[in-house]
Fold:
Amino acid sequence: MEKGYLSFVLHAHLPFVRHPEYKEFLEERWLFEAITETYIPLLEMFEGLVKDGVEFYITMNLSPSLCNMLADELLCNRYIGHLNKMVELCEKEVERNRFNPDFYKVALMYYHRFHRTRDKFLHVYNRNLIKEFKKYQDKGFLEIITCGATHGFLPLLGIQKEAAKAQIRVGANSYRKFFGCDPKGIWLPECAYYEDLDKFLKEEGIRYFLVESHGILFSRPRPKFGVYSSYYTKNRVAVFGRDHESSKSVWSSVEGYPGDYNYREYYRDIGFDLDYDYIRPYISDCGTRIFTGIKYYRITGETPHKEPYVPEWALDKAVFHASNFMFNREKQIEYLSSIFDRKPIIVAPYDAELFGHWWFEGVQWLGLLIRKIRYDQKTFQLTTPSRYLSQYPKNQVITPAASSWGWKGYYEVWLNGSNDWIYPHLHRAQEKMVEAVKQYRSAGPMKERILNQMARELLLAQSSDWAFMMKTGAFSEYACKKTVTHLERFYLLKSYLDRSFVNNEMIEDIESKDNIFPEINYSVFQP
Amino acid sequence: MKKNSSKTSKKTPVKKEKKSLLKRVVSRISRRSKKAPIQEEIVSPKPTYSLEAEKEAVEIEKVNFTAVQETKPESAYNLPLRYGDNRIVLLARDPWWLHTYWDVAEQRINEVISSIPVYERENLKWIIRVYDVTGIKNFEGNNANAFFDIDIRFEANNWYVNVNQPERDWCVEIGLINPFGKFFPVARSNIIKTPYFGISSVIDEEWALPDEDYYKVLGVYDLGKSSLERKKKFEEIIKHQISSPLASWGMSSLFSERPRVADKFFLEVWTELILYGRTEPDADVTVEGKKVHLKSDGTFSLRYALPVGDYTYQVVGVSKNKKHKITKTPAVKRFDK
Structure:
């Protein structure tokens, strides 16, 4: 009999990036890369586990903005175009490396990967990845949860409660549309919680959410089991806290597994290494060198000199790291279960894109780990938060502490000198939205259509991703532009409402660009 | 209480400093006869600005706590920089710091100044008054538990305020203070609570573990002498956890930067070999046994990576009717001197 549980929670999210007005748009590649490197490899892993009859339980958030992109025809077509180009490049690379024993096998590996990915996407998944993930939910292996509509950072938006409420409601509605049932759980954007947020979760029938470790550890009263159990908030929504130890070993690029010298080096990419004329058709439209995803070197060490990647060595390391992770969890659970009068749960949440994208071998590692947990030990089993809750329906009631999983544990990543200028604008727009809904509710189909698009624009401007990019500096210019553009469109639409003037062409243009949440109803912003 | 913000914010002055809004308004009001309508002389704030120029002034003035790269929108966007809706908004950044921004129209400032007796109008300066309103049901400006003031530059539009007290309710007012210490508020903020920090001393009898066991669960193995000591130790651990750069939170989202090897000087040199030729367009050509694609004019061009070593490239051409076969075998030795 097992003594405790481990719950993996993967957070798959990308901000809504879609630019039909351009033939090619660099930031749309985030989605393409994530599909190729993370989402499809995860699906293949699930497929393998099911085929081999390995029982597993994993929780995964497919964020509403990600789902909207995965379901978008234009982006799907562009993804296929991207794959075609990558297959072509891989073919050239196999040929080019024919007499290069160091790289030939790796070039072949990419060739097969991209070929298989294209084949599966077109002919097996029929371009519909959401349906594919849902399949594993229907089989009972995967628990898919939802997220804030556009990943808005709720503690900073929530000074108008309608704003936080709308993020959650639109997120839940989007989930219902894609998965045909109520979401059992929610991944709060950036795991950011503030007092009373649970009320809005309750209203949507959401049964649990996740917080950073100190969200639980600092709760009142003292949480009896630390982060190793479920709790209820006073509104009877269950809450789970992240386990620091298991997170660190995977997350940290320095102390963690992904930094092992045998793993693939992310930063050495043929997009930067190869002769310009040769690589030109496969980099950005404007000719800037970018990451292509084809990388031939291993991390090697803390040196600019890199050695060729050897997949077998990397696999050996993945096996070793899977064993190590399992062993540590066994020890952890043995210890905890000796103290507790219930079976502990270790909740290990990660950004899904860590696996495959940043940590190339991460998906392999996870697959190996799941198999090992099933066959090589008896101390613990995999579970999902809702399975745990059915086992332990009676829980201590606590008030979780305001917190986030960002650097320094609170809100600073999203509120500092680089991005604080957005809040006066966002708060104003939120207020204007609520007012407009009050004023123009049921004011005829055209006005309601404008209100709906205003809601989309506001939600898009709220993504925490923009503030995050402004902070880290990567893509900050694009992030600023996104924030401002969506707000501008918001105010343009509002001016149509106020002046009872309509520029049909303009509205259609905006709707066709920002076509997220086609089902949205502005009443989500009703006070 | 601390007034550190005003101390730390002494920075290089803005180059082309305009006469401050306050000075402009006060001098205008003083010049004016009491009967004259105030309205006329007020320059209403422009509806749209370029964010960039104004933002710069803000950035210079703002207290710089973290070494972050400052980024601003590059081009002039059509968002109003000021809304002129006379408000101050308060946000919590963490258990110890608040962030506040304000937007007050000249008209409102005029109103407040006009209400000040003339002899008390000299040497007014802008401050933010920070009130601790924890547990107060109806805060009315004079019933706070405590307050402290911070000197600010009005044009900064926003400020970070160190309150250093988790789990308290806060409210701020922006306003003018005269040398006699008389405060004239211009706008009052919402109330916000700083997040809690630390392990709760409230223990739920129904859900309790012995203290020693409890701290072990939390990862504190060196238990110390008292429960206070343990509590402190644990809070140190958490502080370290959340602020450790090694934790690299957020490294895995697609657009975050992962740490990479510090830039050291490097030089990479690679070589490639181009093998090209021509034959009859309908001939069959193989290189080391692998068929080569011919262009319609019978030419071909192949590009191979050329690492250190000895290489031979056996090229075989066979005519369409299979009657002719030519073999050529260029060989290359690539070495580093």
User: Anything to note?
Assistant: Chain A has a mean pLDDT of 96.
